[in-house]
Each structure stands twice: as structure tokens, then as C-alpha cells.
Amino acid sequence: MRPRHLYVHVPFCARRCAYCDFSIAVRRTVPEAEFSGALTEELGLRFGGAGQWNVDTLYFGGGTPSRLGGDGVAGLLAALRARITLAPGAEVTLEANPEDVTTDSVVAWRGAGVNRLSLGGQSFDDRVLAWMHRSHDAAAIARAVDAARRGGIDNISLDLIFALPSAVERDWRRDVRRAIELEPSHLSLYGLTVEPHTPMGRWRARGELVESPEERYETEFLFAHDALTDAGYDHYEVSNFGRAGCHSSHNSMYWSGAAYAGLGPSAHEFDGQLRRWNLPVYRDWVRAVRSGADPMEGCERLTPDNREAERVYLGLRTLGGLDTTEAERERVKPWIEAGWAAMDGAARVVLTPLGWLRLDALAADLTVVRSR
Ligand code: SF4
Q: For residues 54 and 3, is the Cβ–Cβ distance under 8 A?
């Protein structure tokens, strides 16, 4: 299988942020050559060397891919491009932490083919960043945006986290306004989820952290929707906002249910029916590919019911909405009366921001109708 979309997981981070449960490898010094070598071995092992592989979107996620530095990313892309061909206009995204973004590194990334940066900002309040154990301060975010533009990458996405505990006294409105002032082409906003095996999960277990009430999540989500749409962004997916022409092609591919390949520790992959995922621990993944073994940890074949449930959920996440049958439109009528959804044409239902706040319940409701 050679899908037209490729995800590469780069697991290295300077330290673990207090909320993070991703598969990462904390390293003071990044083993660039070892990682790049293992990744190309996995590529050859699983996809072979022969024939041309055309790719429309390539996404370096993590972890912190920017920790590879200018030369590290350029070397990795050169190794990948020996096996894959980036289609004309391909979107190549690199996730970056602000402290890694300098004009020199961006020039190297741009020269290697990166044309989109996804910056982990999270907040513009130094006190909040320190509480989250982020490795940068607020000023570094603005410096990174400036360096990205000077280095030749204008397509910049900024991540922010909302719904923090009340005790943190975070000023969400100020942070959203500050983000708008920087004029990124795209923003991704995520509500804080406290997972058990994270520093925050341990703080909660000790009674040192009380999660934000549901109302804070709703108020902050709706404020961001109003402020960002007023500023000209399309709220095109429950967590994502973009200027026209700057919606994420790679992420939109996930929501459309398209096939994609995944390389690197913990990377997921989907061929339209089968979902598989790699060993999550960096050393285990390196050991497997070096011994010539597929580094897969597990896989599952989606049943027709699974695929239908996923199609409903993914469709309702986006502004593109979901095509419905007559029976489903009957079910949706109360949603429309409640202001949770609207019809786009005769058959397509699209959730409103109020509907997105109830996404799980509404998707489950429609899946029941569909499975009858
Ligand atoms: S930088 Fe990102 S991946 Fe790394 S620890 Fe922080 S949140 Fe997790």
C-alpha cells in the first residue's frame, strides 16, 4: 500500500510537558543520524525501494520534530525523498516548539521542502507556561513567528490549550487576542484533558489539581469561535481554524477517512480498512527495524459498523458536514431547533459550535439510527 499521505513521528522532546501523554523520548541530545537511519530502514522494510511513491501531504509530528534542527530535518527529508516524490503543491508540515525556530533553521527547513509550520504556543502567559512545564516563554512565540516569516515560511499554525483549571487564573480572552495579533494562517485549539499517567494526572490524584468546570470549556470554546471568525478565520473543524486556502490538507485527509501511511515509533496507519500502529518506545522501535522486523505493535480491522460510526463522527466534526438519509433528518430536527445543527442543502447536516460542544452524544445518536 502506498497512500498519498504520510505521517512521520519524531519522538524527541527536551522534557515532558505536564499534560502530555504522547509517545515521546526525552533527550538532551537528539540522535539525528540513528533516527534518520532507522526511519529509512522502516520505509524500505515496509514499502520496498522500487517504483515511485507520490505523496500529497507529509506531516512531521511528535514529539518535537524541530529538535532535529535545520540540518537534521534537511537530512531526513533528503533520505525520504530518495523513496518518495512530493507531488506539485504538496503540503509539508513540521511541528515546532518556539525555542527551535530561528531564521537559519527555517531557511534550512524551507530549502528541504517544508512549507508549513505548526507551532506549539499553548499560552502567552509565562506563569501558565511554567505551570505546564513548557520549555519556552511567551516572548519566544512571537520571535518564532517572526523568524518563520523571515526564513520564508508564511503558512504558520499556532496551537493553544484552553479550559485550564480555575486556580491557574489564565486569561483566555487575552491569549486569543494575542494570537490574532500575530496573524497566523491557522490555529488549533485543544481543551485540556488530564490523563492519569501524566504529571497533571498525578497532581490530580494528590488533590493538587481540580479540573476546570464544564462551563469554562464551553465559554472559552464559544469565545474563541466568535473572536476568530470575526477576525476572518473559518472554523472548519471542531478544533481548527484557518484562513481561506490555509486549512490543513493533512488533517483534512484524516477527517475524510482517506488512507495514510505512518512511520516512526507509535505512528498510526490506515489503509481504508485496517488500522495499525507501531511500537511506542523509541528503543524498541529502533531495535525492531534494525533487526529487519516490522515494528508494528498492533492492528485492527474495522468492521462495516465501525467504519460507519467513524464516518458519522468524522463528518460531524467538520464544516463539510454529513450526508443524511430521510430517517436521519427526522432525528436531526430537534438538533436544528436547539441550535446545534443546520442543514446545508437538502441532505447535508452541519453542526454549529453549540453542536460541536455535544459532538460525542450527537454522533452516537446518529450512529444508532444508521445501524438500524
Ligand atoms: S513538546 Fe509536545 S510532545 Fe513534547 S512533551 Fe510537550 S506536549 Fe508532549
A: no
Q: How far is the CA of 247 from the centre of ligand 1 (A)?
A: 23
DSSP 222-275: HHHHHHHHHTT-EEEETTEEE-TT-S-HHHHHHHHT--BEEESTT-EEE-SSEE
* Residue to substitute in 12, 23, 24 for testing ligand 1 pocket (most ligand atoms within 8 angstroms of CB): 24
pLDDT in tens, 168-178: 999 999 999 99
Q: Which residues line ligand 1 (CB under 6 A)?
A: 13, 16-17, 20, 22, 24, 62-64, 97, 120
Alpha-carbon gap, residue 310 to 362, rounded angstroms:
13
Query: Which band of pLDDT confidence, cut at 50, 70 and 90, is reported for residue 48?
Result: confident
pLDDT one-digit tens code per residue, 122-136: 999 999 999 999 999
**pLDDT, tens only, 131-187:** 999 999 999 999 999 999 999 999 999 999 999 999 999 999 999 999 999 999 999
Look at ligand 1, atom 3, and give the residue with the nearest C-alpha: 63
Compute CA distances 198 → 111, 194, 201, 329, 349, whole Å: 37, 8, 5, 42, 38
The H-or-E segment that residue 214 falls in is helix 214-230
What distance in angstroms lies between residue 291's CA and the mean position of ligand 1's atoms? 29
Predicted TM-score of the model (pTM): 0.96
Tell me what the mean pLDDT of segment 346-357 comes to: 96
Over residues 296-332, the pLDDT tens digits come to: 999 999 999 999 999 999 999 999 999 998 988 999 9
Residue nearest atom 6 of ligand 1, based on CA coordinates:
17
